[in-house]
């Protein structure tokens, strides 16, 4: 266990006391080819609708960790002409899951030093993974400093049978070390940092 | 199944084959240089040495009381609804996995890249049972298509050109794919997506097992680890017993070490922490989860002078910096693990008779010690294995005779003086006569080296006179 109070001087996955957690979180995501936006609750639905339209998404699944905001978002997306499902309703139907263009999820936590978003099995293991575009809503209050804080909090996050950190889109460099974005997970990861809480 | 390269050929023979492939000597150093450069960049403003000291401390504390932590791990897994299986050797591990697949009525298996499953030669056994097995890591998928073996712990097709990969994937596609890494990856993605969706069983290794919480940790970039443990109705994780760590806090140390040392990344795209099968109210995930704990020669190392090798977290960093590995690549080592860690593990797991020459495939430069994220004294272990080879009588007869002669000559001052004078003059005569390349058994040694001429008056004699 890293008992040293200066652990942050050793590990790049920790935050220095002078670092701004939200700023660093967003910057790290951009470093690994993710995209970010920071906004308030009033702009949330509009932003996600615009993002999905820009991605050319038609079939979209929403996971339960969006909380009360999910119903509002679903309605707005449906009105915009998208085909919207709750992820848990379609998770068992492989053919439907395959045809998803995008998923929108919430998250349990964000890790500032690494730009990671943390999702749990309770909202679904594969929801954030199966579609080419993943939009993740992160409430600002959920951003923690570094991995050591996340690990300390982990047992209390209510992750269920799986807790996963995802950092940017999926990638490989197996072919002559050429970096390719988008392998088995999404090609595009867009993080919406919400100054406020997910509520209806 | 083809012959075991380790027992049917020598290191020198295998190395010669690899050295004849110009791409291996270009690509391996280039790729590994990048990984090392990225590691240094990653820690430019942090203390890699301090962090690896913490890593060493965690690993050494765990291995010193391995049974305590394994018990705790097994208990926590069971409480999480995971079925735990113990395997003393490779055959038992294969047996467990074959039985689980049979009982699940499985026909299709998807795999996450795992060196442990390579170690127990799992795929041929599953295929013999009629199962369709698909490797889902892009590199491992190509390895499987070619009937090849991985040549680096984390970069399995580091030895293949894009052209070769394109040929393999085009064969599967039934059409000519473009010579473009992005298109090749895209094709594999579509192909493997079917495999994920249709599979009954997902098999992974484990980067770490967290004792306190009963969690299997998988570190990947492509997302295949998460797919294999989300889609199929059964998940089996094969984990070497040494991969356990005490608690979740330790992950905050081990994760930046494994990703930094492995690929130079701050963190990989995906880190999955799996604590059991799908629970009530969860929309997806496997109905059952199994952890197979593999001994296969590990427990026998506890309490020996080789115990520290159990600290290894399989990051591949020692391969990246090894001047021998960088020239000959992983296949020259003849078994699953190449590079310094392979030269230590192979004789320990496969015996001195089969792997005893590998510790000699090292210049003992110590670059592996300096980069190892958990500070394993690899070059000490290599030396100890060289000595053990002598002790068990597996060293070549000539080498043993030479060593005995050396010991005899150096154990008395007058023998030492007489013999060094004879040798000094002898070497000068040989060099003057231009005989260096024709020294019989020594000719091979002198082929790549020059024989320095000894000073006319040895240092020791000058000392005597000055005194």
Architecture overview:
The complex is a heterodimer of chains A (200) and B (467). In chain A, 28% of the residues lie in helices and 25% in strands. With 200 residues, chain A is an alpha/beta fold. In chain A, strand 10 and strand 11 form a beta hairpin. Chain A is globular. Chain A starts with 6 loop residues before the first helix and ends in a 6-residue tail after the last strand. The mean pLDDT of chain A is 93. Chain B has 467 residues and is an alpha/beta fold. Chain B contains 23 helices and 10 strands. Chain B has a 6-stranded parallel beta sheet, sandwiched between helices. Chain B has a 4-stranded mixed beta sheet with strand order 8-5-6-9, with helices on both faces. At the A-B interface, helix 1, helix 6, helix 7, strand 9 and strand 10 of A face helix 3, helix 4, helix 9, helix 11 and helix 12 of B. Strand 9 of chain A pairs antiparallel with strand 9 of chain B.
Q: Got a strand count of chain B?
A: 10
Q: Which sequence of strands runs across the widest sheet of chain B?
A: 1-10-7-4-2-3
Give the name of the CATH superfamily of chain A. Answer: NagB/RpiA/CoA transferase-like
Uncertain spans of chain A, ≥5 residues at pLDDT below 50? none
Q: Main sheet of chain A? A: 6 strands, parallel
In CATH's first tier, which class of chain A applies? Alpha Beta
Q: How far from one another are the termini of chain A?
A: 40 Å
> Could you estimate the helical fraction of the residues of chain A in percent?
25-40%
Side-by-side strand order of the widest sheet of chain A: 1-12-7-4-2-3
> What form of chain A results from the Cα inertia axes?
globular
Q: On the 0-100 scale, what is the average pLDDT of chain A?
A: 93
**Morphology call of chain B:** globular
Number of beta strands of chain A: 12
What Rg of chain B, in angstroms, do the CA atoms define? Answer: 25 Å
- The number of distinct helices of chain A, counting runs of at least 4 residues, comes to 7
Q: Considering DSSP H and I runs of 4 or more, what fraction of the residues of chain B is helical?
A: 40-55%
Mean pLDDT of chain B comes to: 92
State the CATH topology of chain A.
Rossmann fold
């Amino acid at each position: 266990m890293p008992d040293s109070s200066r652990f942050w001087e050793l590990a790049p996955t920790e935050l220095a006391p002078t670092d701004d957690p939200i700023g660093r979180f967003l910057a790290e995501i951009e470093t690994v080819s993710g995209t970010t936006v920071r906004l308030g609750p009033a702009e949330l639905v509009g932003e996600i609708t615009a993002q999905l339209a820009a991605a050319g998404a038609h079939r979209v699944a929403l996971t339960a960790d969006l909380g009360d905001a999910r119903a509002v978002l679903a309605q707005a997306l449906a009105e915009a002409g998208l085909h919207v499902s709750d992820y848990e309703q379609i998770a068992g139907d492989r053919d439907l899951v395959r045809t998803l263009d995008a998923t929108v999820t919430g998250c349990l936590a964000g890790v500032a030093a690494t730009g990671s978003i943390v999702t749990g099995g309770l909202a679904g293991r594969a929801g954030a993974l199966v579609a080419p575009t993943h939009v993740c809503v992160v409430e600002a209050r959920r951003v923690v400093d570094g991995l050591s804080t996340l690990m300390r909090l982990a047992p209390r996050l209510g992750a269920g049978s799986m807790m996963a950190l995802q950092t940017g889109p999926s990638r490989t460099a197996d072919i002559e070390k050429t970096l390719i974005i988008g392998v088995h997970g999404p090609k595009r990861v867009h993080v919406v940092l919400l100054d406020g809480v997910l509520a209806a | 199944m083809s012959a075991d390269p380790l027992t049917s050929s020598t290191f020198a023979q295998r190395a010669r084959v690899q050295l004849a492939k110009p791409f291996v000597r270009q690509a391996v150093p280039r790729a590994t240089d990048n990984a090392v450069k990225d590691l240094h960049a990653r820690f430019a403003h942090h203390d890699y040495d301090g962090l690896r000291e913490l890593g060493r401390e965690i690993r050494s504390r765990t291995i010193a009381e391995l049974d305590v932590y394994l018990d705790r791990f097994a208990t926590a897994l069971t409480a999480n609804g995971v079925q735990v299986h113990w395997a003393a050797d490779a055959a038992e591990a294969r047996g467990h996995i074959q039985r689980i697949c049979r009982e699940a009525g499985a026909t299709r298996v998807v795999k996450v890249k795992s060196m442990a499953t390579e170690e127990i030669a799992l795929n041929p056994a599953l295929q013999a049972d009629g199962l369709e097995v698909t490797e889902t890591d892009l590199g491992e998928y190509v390895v499987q298509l070619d009937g090849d073996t991985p040549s680096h712990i984390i970069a399995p097709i580091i030895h293949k050109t894009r052209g070769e990969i394109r040929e393999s994937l085009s064969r599967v596609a039934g059409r000519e794919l473009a010579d473009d890494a992005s298109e090749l990856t895209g094709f594999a993605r579509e192909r493997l997506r079917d495999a994920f969706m249709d599979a009954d069983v997902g098999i992974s290794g484990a980067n770490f097992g967290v004792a306190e919480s009963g969690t299997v940790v998988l570190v990947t970039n492509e997302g295949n680890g998460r797919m294999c443990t989300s889609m199929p109705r059964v998940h089996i994780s094969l984990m070497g017993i040494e991969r356990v760590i005490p608690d979740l806090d330790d992950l905050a140390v081990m994760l930046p070490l494994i990703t930094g040392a492995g690929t130079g990344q701050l963190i990989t795209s995906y880190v999955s922490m799996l604590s059991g099968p799908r629970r009530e109210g969860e929309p997806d995930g496997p109905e059952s989860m199994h952890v197979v704990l593999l001994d296969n020669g590990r427990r026998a190392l506890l309490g020996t002078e080789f115990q520290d090798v159990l600290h290894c977290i399989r990051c591949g960093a020692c391969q990246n910096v090894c001047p021998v590995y960088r020239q000959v690549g992983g296949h020259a080592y003849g078994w699953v693990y190449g590079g310094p860690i392979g030269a230590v593990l192979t004789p320990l797991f496969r015996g001195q008779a089969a792997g005893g020459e590998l510790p000699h495939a090292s210049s003992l430069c110590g670059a592996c010690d300096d980069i190892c994220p958990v500070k394993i004294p690899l070059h000490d272990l290599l030396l100890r294995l060289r000595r053990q080879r002598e002790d068990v009588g597996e060293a070549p007869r000539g080498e043993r005779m030479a060593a005995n002669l050396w010991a005899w000559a150096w154990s008395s001052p007058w023998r030492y003086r007489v013999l060094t004078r004879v040798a000094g003059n002898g070497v000068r005569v040989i060099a003057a006569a231009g005989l260096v390349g024709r020294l019989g058994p020594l000719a091979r040694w002198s082929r790549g080296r020059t024989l320095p001429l000894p000073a006319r008056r040895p240092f020791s004699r000058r000392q005597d006179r000055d005194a």
